[in-house]
Amino acid sequence: MPGLARGNIEINIEECKGCGLCVESCPPKCLALADELSAYGVHPAVYAGDGCTGCGICFYCCPEPGAITVFRLAAPPKTVAGSRGGQHAPAV
Ligand code: SF4
Ligand code: SF4
Fold first, then answer.
1. Which residue in 15, 20, 42, 90 is a FRET match for 79, CA 20 to 30 A apart?
2. Element (H, E) at 47
3. pTM score, whole prediction
């Protein structure tokens, strides 16, 4: 069973120059260059749709400001081990 997604990204194809640095640097390999050309005649980066950990490496290696936005998803609330989310004992 796959783990919960920890991140998500958006790529602005108006800013992407198709250099591929983000594709090479993404640890879980969830980025690729599109088969289609953008209006600028380059193959822009695209996100596979899942697998992003929110690490931000693609953001830091991208030479184009504004091409990539990384979102770190909120972690689910932690529960105490063994707890089933029960109720407090009734007051006596
Ligand atoms: S934030 Fe990290 S895991 Fe997500 S697409 Fe960028 S490099 Fe890959
Ligand atoms: S590093 Fe930036 S400019 Fe290069 S392909 Fe990725 S999003 Fe586009």
1. 90
2. strand 45-47
3. 0.81
